[in-house]
Amino acid sequence: MQIGANSLLQEMQSLSGEIPAGGINTQITRQVNNTSGSNFGELLSQAVGSVGELQANSASMASRLDMGDTSVTLSDTVIAREKASVAFEATVQVRNKFVEAYKQIMSMPV
What we know:
It comes from Shewanella canadensis. The protein has 2 domains: 1-34; 38-110. Helices cover 73% and strands 0% of the residues. The protein has 4 helices and no strands. It has helices at residues 5-16, 26-33, 40-66, 74-106. Helix 3 packs antiparallel against helix 4 (74-106). The longest helix has 33 residues, at 74-106.
């Protein structure tokens, strides 16, 4: 089953209306909606940067929890870690698709 980029974007936009304000997809939805006229390299760089921020936030929360900071709960730490994990896995999948596309282009006869 092939999933087109447009149908996936439409589905993400329709789902974003179902998530309460300040939900998980708020930042991602804003980035998707503000892509008109943007350079692909810049968008990719921003996406990788936000994955790095999620990972740094997760590590910070974990270390604060380990040190006994009472303002950080275990559930918040686990949620932050899962967000970082999902974002990283998505980034790896995008990279794999780029590598696959590159290999297909390079194997085309000229």
